[in-house]
Amino acid sequence: MSGARQHFIPRFLKKGFASKTIKKEVYTWVFTKEKEPYEANTRNIGLEKFFYGNPEDSQADSLITGKETEFGLFIDELRNNIRDIEIESRIPSELVTHLIIRTQHIRESLTDVGKTLVDLAQNNITSSQDFKKLLVNIIQNNPELIEESLRKEVLKKIPPSTPPDIIEKFIELAKMFIPQIIEQQHEEGHMFFSNLLAKMNDEMQSLVKGAQVRVLSESVVPEKHLEKFEHFRWKLIVVDHARFILGDIGPIGFYKTEGTFQPFLFSKGELANALLPISDKHIIVGSSQSPRLEHSCNEINEAIASLSKFYFISRTKNERNMQLSKLIGSRSLNISETDLSSAKTQIRKDFYGEA
Questions:
Q1: What is the distance of C-alpha 240 from the center of its chain?
Q2: How far is CA 233 from the centre of its chain?
Q3: Other CB atoms within 10 Å distance of the CB of residue 48
């Protein structure tokens, strides 16, 4: 993957869904919502030029490439099994964690969520009076934060030898001027705030990319995300009659509380199982209990298709996959109407102190 052409779904994973192999070149069927299925070289699927940044500016690409060797050998070995096996290794936890934060799916999903939240803020602060009300509410509800900010500013501007009681008097004096400052500056503040939100919306894609690249440059398997699977046990399950697909989302989770498959990002409830197909017949299943396959191949494929954002791949082109392609994007990470309503309510509460 090293270089300009950078794969956000690794080729070692796509290899398990090969429709044919010609002189070491691996092909698979690609299903999207808008186009007819097409057979493509895995070299040309799930990649983007400098997706993880120019190697001269970021080490994310080289770190990922290095880790892929370990992951690829591990997955190749698992695919050689013809029966179920318990996996006594930390690698599945690392691989699933890595794929969760690596994909285009998470980048686009975070971008969508970011733009939605910015839109909510813009729609709720349409005038300078709205902005004034916001500032007043923040000051009333978070006095400790305001005082801490004032303290930092005061300490920057006075000699280090200033007695503590004089510092406190400066802070109290500054607090007295806050209402007057708000009254005089809320129109200019609103204009600045509106321009800032508009710029954030325009640059959301690059902001999210920068954040993703920074995380991967620090570690391709961040510990704080790996903790989710700290107590998980893993099992390879082989289903001879299965025809698993692989979506652009990578691994998916089944959540006990909600009783549904969900993306790992912004998921709700208790994670019961993590699932990652590694071929059309092999699937890795993780659980904090005894891992087992509790859903049919059809149920898993429907979840993968609906949670994927742009495409899925398969070893075969068939009518069932044609039907599944219609589900693509239907449950990918977009804010639901329920979540959107909750976000609006929370913004009104945080911004304006409304119940």
A1: 32
A2: 23
A3: 13
Cβ atoms of 170 and 154 within 8 Å: the answer is yes
Residue with tokens 């129109």: 187
Q: In the 8-state DSSP scheme, what is residue 283?
A: E
Q: What is the mean pLDDT of each run of 10 residues along the chain (355 residues)?
A: 74 94 94 94 86 75 86 95 94 93 86 83 82 80 79 82 84 81 85 87 87 87 88 94 93 88 79 95 94 93 95 96 94 66 67 59
Q: Are strands 252-255 and 271-277 parallel, antiparallel or unpaired?
A: antiparallel
CA dihedral 323, 326, 330, 332 (to 10 degrees): 90
Residue 149: Cβ within 10 Å count: 12
The separation between the first and the last C-alpha atoms of the chain, rounded to the nearest angstrom, is 51
Report the predicted TM-score, pTM, of the whole model to 2 decimal places: 0.80
Task: Give the CA count within 13 Å in the CB-facing half-sphere of 44.
Answer: 9
Torsion 237-12-229-262 (CA) sign: negative
**Domain extents in the chain:** 112-208+338-352
Q: Rounded to the nearest 5°, which phi and psi values hold at 116?
A: -65, -45
Buried b (16+ CB within 10 A) or exposed e, 91-111: bbbbbbbbbbbbbbbbbbbbb
User: Contact 256/249 with Cβ under 8 angstroms?
Assistant: no
Please state, in angstroms and rounded to a whole number, the distance separating the CA atoms of residues 350 and 330.
Answer: 31
